[in-house]
Specification:
- Helix 2 links the parallel strand 3 and strand 4.
- It contains two helices and four strands; from the N terminus they run βαββαβ.
- It starts with 6 loop residues before the first strand and ends in a 7-residue tail after the last strand.
């Protein structure tokens, strides 16, 4: 099975420096960077840290409009008890 990066992101302030409200009020910084037929595909989104889920949600927004079949998410850590969340 072949894996490719399907998105790119704009430069922005580190998410760890923002509150949950500040994160959610930003525009979607992601863009799909490949001309790929996503219809009926299975997508695995990989992220280093799951804090609010906003990264996964915003990427999923871009993918669902492309008629994908399924999205799975994999993160390596989850932030808890962070006063900025």
């Amino acid at each position: 099975m072949k894996y490719i990066q399907i998105y790119e992101t704009e430069e922005r302030q580190k998410q760890s420096e923002l509150t949950k409200l500040e994160r959610s009020s930003q525009h979607n910084p992601f863009k799909i960077n490949k001309d790929i037929d996503f219809e009926n595909k299975r997508i695995l989104l990989v992220d280093d840290i799951y804090t609010t889920g906003l990264t996964m949600h915003r990427l999923a927004e871009l993918l669902f409009i492309r008629k994908i079949r399924k999205i799975d998410a994999l993160t390596f850590a989850r932030a808890v008890n962070n006063d900025k969340i």
